[in-house]
Write a structure and sequence with these properties.
Largest sheet: 6 strands, mixed
Strand content: 15-25%
Structural class: alpha/beta
Helix content: 25-40%
Radius of gyration: 21 Å
Order of helices and strands: EEEEHHEHHHHHHEEHEEHEHE
Length: 349
């Protein structure tokens, strides 16, 4: 049976139930055969790709018997994921392709899933060459696109699947894929991407100088108490790897351990806040505070409060990530910064 794939891209946080001939990845708010998501409170501490590696039956059981009546004809499998798919989403799409092809997980697929988990948990080792790791290369290939979102979504999947097929082949040949400059040497598209990452570091330096540096007392994630950390707040960053450079930046972070918190603001509509898991801190409570302020401001202006700030309230993220409402926040940049400083008893440097 020949299978062709079609893709649908939806907003983050959409809820889905299993449907025949459909696989939902990295959205759906449940983990059942046919819908594989890790963003809900009942999920295991895995990303979507590592869930597939751990439980391939989530795909194989759902597709068992599907398409039998189409023997000799092309059968279309629909894959639904979130808009602007990231590394975990495209890795998961690739794993679905391979599971349907092979009927099982193999070693190279498990290596890709393990790496995707490292990426999605923001746990890339600080000592690796950031310019020669697949995550950064894919981000470089994605960055700077000036296409309509629908076209950009499909291009991300196409570009991502090319990289995943390359990684699958190389992992099968025994190569290390976490960071390996020689792996990408001589391949023009990937060498251009690595040069773009090198240039991105200088964009990061510009962002550091224009950004706001703060110090915060943030709660410890595994036991009571707080830890003083450096934070970096940047409006409309020019660096696409700002978070990664910031966490490695021992020169500009006053405490000498890198910026444990980063906050970026895109067009005063979308705010993303995150903390470095290696620092042992989280942001539990800040999302609730922002939602309280969001609700109060919307009530005063008559704007519906249909979408909330995402608090990272799933076992995998454990409150380390906060993202503004899908319809854009009503809070100003200054109000979000004030809430952060209030939460962390912070001060500006």
């Amino acid at each position: 049976m020949y299978v062709s794939y079609e893709y649908e891209f939806v907003n983050y946080g959409e809820v889905f139930s299993p449907q025949p001939g459909v696989i939902v990845l990295d959205v759906g708010m449940k983990t059942v055969p046919g819908v594989i998501d890790h963003h809900h409170p009942e999920a295991e501490p895995e990303c979507t790709a590592s869930l597939l590696a751990r439980y391939p039956g989530l795909v194989l059981d759902h597709l068992r018997g599907w398409g039998k009546s189409s023997a000799g004809e092309a059968t279309r499998l629909r894959i639904i994921t979130h808009r602007l798919p990231d590394f975990d989403a495209v890795a998961s799409i690739f794993l679905v392709h391979k599971l349907h092809e092979l009927g099982r997980m193999d070693g190279p697929m498990e290596k890709i899933a393990s790496y995707a988990k490292m990426v999605d948990s923001a746990s890339l080792p600080r000592d690796i060459d950031l310019t020669a790791t697949p995550y950064s290369i894919l981000r470089a290939l994605f960055s700077g696109a000036k296409k309509e979102e629908g076209e950009a979504n499909l291009e991300r999947v196409s570009e991502g699947l090319k990289l995943m097929r390359f990684l699958y082949t190389k992992a099968g040949e025994g190569y290390e894929i976490i960071s390996n400059r020689r792996l990408f040497a001589g391949i023009d598209r990937y060498e251009r991407a690595m040069r773009k990452i090198e240039d991105d570091y200088f964009h990061y330096l510009d962002d550091v100088h224009k950004g706001l540096k703060v110090q915060l007392e943030l709660p410890l994630a595994t036991h009571s108490g707080k830890k003083k950390v450096d934070g970096l707040i940047v409006r409309n960053p020019s660096s696409f790897l700002l978070k990664e450079w910031a966490r490695r930046d021992i020169e500009h972070a006053a405490l000498g351990s890198g910026f444990a918190l980063s906050m970026t603001n895109f067009g005063d509509k979308r705010f993303i806040l995150g903390v470095d898991p290696a620092q042992g801190i989280y942001l539990k409570g800040l999302g609730s505070l922002l939602n309280q302020k969001e609700e109060a401001k919307r009530l005063s202006s008559g704007r519906p409060f249909a979408f909330r700030w995402y608090e990272g309230n799933c076992p995998f993220f454990n409150y380390r990530i906060i993202d503004s409402p899908q319809d854009g926040t009503s809070l100003t940049h200054e109000e979000v910064v004030k809430a952060l400083l209030e939460f962390g008893q912070g001060l500006k440097l």
